[in-house]
Structures are given as structure tokens and as C-alpha cells.
């Protein structure tokens, strides 16, 4: 459960300038998650946000997502060994990793709740595939976005990472001010759930960062309504890039990695991290009150 896992994370007092994601959450003896490829290619779903009626606003949302990647890229350019490369728009709406499949690191918006479109008797609920089957949001309604990462359970090496934004429960905006209020009427000219603020945090998960309670961190697990501060990456998260992905050197694990295999196949695990709101309901003020950046883990075979 997202909330239960978050409480565990908060209980252990993760307040360092940065905290690396691990195969076993919160365990300092477990392997960290990290990339070993020189370039991470990511792709936007061509659909964009289904709730966005105007093409001009759709392009503003795409631009906000690109700025989030660019913010991290500037740090990698200065002291890191990875590059982000945007691939072509894709029509694909599936997240997860398929062994020997045509995998991609995709960013997409889900505009329907699985609870509203997937029959309760559908096997997808047991298989955890409703999101892909019905193109719907299958996580907690309070979660703003979710990053699903597939990695080798022994080495911690990341193979794939997808980001979903919950447009079924939140209004995403791209303007700089002011925060939306109960009298705002619409989110056209105010900040509800900022795309760039959300994406900059989620990309932190994509590259292997966990939550920290360090004040001012982009990976801090709470956010007030209309927050924009996570558009800016803090010094602690910058240090993570420089130390975990040092320029001119291999990416750094926490423990000497050993690739875990069964036959010729790597043993895969999955974990998902997301931005969760404690506010009830949907619409303009769905993130009323303090939002929580929650944590959820999945273990076992890769999702197709």
C-alpha cells in the first residue's frame, strides 16, 4: 500500500541530502538502483493529456515535461555520465517492461480511473494489468503521478522506467502563478498541479532517487497546493548525480553488482514511486491540503 510504505519511509527518518532507491526499500545493505547505459531515450505519448482540449495547451504541457528533463540534463552535462534523448512521439499506451519486447521509457497521462472502466470480474485486477488493458489509472486516486521502474533484483541495474500522470484525478497546469483557490473557477490561469514540478520529481525516481525529508529537496515527500519549487533541483540531488553517475567513469552501485540470472534471463523486479495527495475528490482542488509524495513497490516478473 502506498500510504503504509510511505509511513515506513518516514519512520526511518530519511533526511539525508539525497537517498538512493534500493532493491529493498530503506535497507542500507541492499543494492541501489542505477542505470549503466550512456543514453536514456524517453518518449512522449502522442495523445498527450486527454483532458486538454486545445492543441496549444497540449504543447505547453509537452514543453513543461521537456524542461524537466533539461533541468536534470544540465547537471549531467556538468558532472555526470548520462544523457537524455527524446525519441519520437509514440501511440503506445502501455507501461512496464517486456522481456525481449520493444520496450521504451514512456511518459503519458491517464485520464480514466480503472475502477470506472474495468469490470470487477476482469482478470486484469489479479494480473495487475488493468492500466494497460483499459488505458486507465490503476493506482490510488490520491496519487498525482507514478514512476514504474524495472530493474535486475540482484545488481540493481535499471532496464526500463515509465512515468504516468494521473489526469483522472488532477488538473495539470503550466502557468507560473497564482495558486488556484476555491474561487479560481478554472485552472486556465492558476497553478493547480504543475506539470514541471511533478515531472522533475518523477525523473528523480527514474534515475534512482528515493524520497528524503531534507527541506527544499526536489525529492521531499510533501507538496502544498500550487507548488512550483520542485521545478528547481537542489544541491543534494545534484550531488547524487555527480557521485552516482561521475563524469568519465562508470555509474556507481552501492554494492559490487552481480547480475542475477535464471537460465539466460535476468531476474527482474519492479517498483513504482509516485506523488500522492491526501485531498479527497477530483477536479480543480483535488490536491487541497498538503500532498504526499508516496512510495509503492512491486516485486516479481516484469509487467507487459
Protein described:
The strands form 3 sheets. Strands 1, 2, 3, 4, 5, 8, 11, 12 and 13 form a 9-stranded mixed β-sheet that branches. Helix 2 (55-79) packs across helix 6 (195-206). The protein has a single domain (2-298), classed as Collagenase (Catalytic Domain). It has helices at residues 2-11, 55-79, 114-117, 124-127, 130-134, 195-206, 235-244, and strands at 39-44, 83-86, 105-110, 143-152, 158-166, 172-173, 193-194, 222-223, 261-262, 265-266, 268-277, 291-292, 295-298. Strand 4 and strand 5 (158-166) form a beta hairpin. The two termini are 21 Å apart. By secondary structure, the protein is an alpha/beta fold.
Explain the layout of strands and helices:
Blueprint: H1 2-11, E1 39-44, H2 55-79, E2 83-86, E3 105-110, H3 114-117, H4 124-127, H5 130-134, E4 143-152, E5 158-166, E6 172-173, E7 193-194, H6 195-206, E8 222-223, H7 235-244, E9 261-262, E10 265-266, E11 268-277, E12 291-292, E13 295-298
Parallel strand pairs: 1-2, 1-3, 3-5, 6-7
Antiparallel strand pairs: 4-5, 4-11, 8-12, 9-10, 11-12, 11-13
Helix pairs in contact: 2-6
- The CATH class, by name, is Alpha Beta
The best one-word shape is globular
Mean pLDDT level: 84
Work out the helix count: 7
Number of domains: 1
The secondary-structure element order is: HEHEEHHHEEEEHEHEEEEE
CATH homology-level superfamily: Collagenase (Catalytic Domain)
Strands, total number: 13
**Global Rg:** 18 Å
The percentage helix is 10-25%
Give the second-level CATH assignment, the architecture: 3-Layer(aba) Sandwich
Structural class comes to alpha/beta
Query: What is the subunit organization of this protein?
Result: single chain
End-to-end separation = 21 Å
Give start-end ranges of low-pLDDT stretches. Answer: 1-13, 261-265, 278-304
Q: What's the main sheet like?
A: 9 strands, mixed
Amino acid at each position: 500500500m502506498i500510504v503504509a510504505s510511505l509511513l515506513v519511509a518516514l519512520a526511518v527518518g530519511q533526511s539525508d541530502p539525497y537517498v538512493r532507491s534500493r532493491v529493498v526499500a530503506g535497507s542500507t545493505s541492499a543494492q541501489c538502483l542505477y542505470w549503466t547505459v550512456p543514453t536514456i531515450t524517453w518518449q512522449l505519448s502522442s495523445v498527450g493529456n486527454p483532458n486538454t482540449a486545445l492543441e496549444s495547451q497540449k504543447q505547453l504541457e509537452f514543453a513543461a515535461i521537456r524542461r524537466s528533463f533539461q533541468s536534470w540534463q544540465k547537471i549531467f552535462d556538468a558532472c555526470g555520465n548520462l544523457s537524455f534523448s527524446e525519441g519520437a512521439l509514440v501511440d503506445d499506451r502501455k507501461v512496464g517492461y517486456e522481456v525481449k519486447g520493444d520496450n521504451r521509457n514512456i511518459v503519458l497521462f491517464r485520464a480514466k480511473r480503472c475502477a470506472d472502466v474495468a469490470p470487477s470480474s476482469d482478470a486484469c485486477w489479479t494480473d495487475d494489468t488493468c492500466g494497460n488493458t483499459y488505458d486507465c489509472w490503476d493506482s490510488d486516486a490520491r496519487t498525482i503521478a507514478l514512476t514504474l521502474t524495472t530493474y535486475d533484483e540482484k545488481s540493481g541495474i535499471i532496464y526500463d522506467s515509465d512515468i504516468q500522470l494521473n489526469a483522472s484525478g488532477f488538473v495539470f497546469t503550466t502557468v507560473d502563478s497564482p495558486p488556484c483557490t476555491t474561487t479560481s473557477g478554472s485552472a486556465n490561469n492558476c497553478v493547480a498541479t504543475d506539470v514541471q514540478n511533478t515531472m522533475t520529481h518523477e525523473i528523480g525516481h527514474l534515475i534512482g532517487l528515493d524520497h528524503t525529508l531534507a527541506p527544499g529537496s526536489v525529492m521531499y515527500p510533501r507538496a502544498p497546493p500550487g507548488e512550483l519549487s520542485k521545478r528547481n533541483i537542489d544541491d543534494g540531488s545534484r550531488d547524487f548525480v555527480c557521485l552516482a553517475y561521475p563524469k568519465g567513469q562508470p555509474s556507481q552501485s552501492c554494492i559490487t553488482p552481480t547480475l542475477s540470472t535464471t537460465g539466460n534471463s535476468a531476474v527482474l523486479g519492479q517498483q513504482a514511486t509516485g506523488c500522492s495527495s491526501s485531498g479527497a475528490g477530483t477536479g480543480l482542488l483535488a490536491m487541497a491540503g498538503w500532498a504526499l509524495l508516496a512510495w509503492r513497490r512491486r516485486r516479481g516478473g516484469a509487467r507487459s
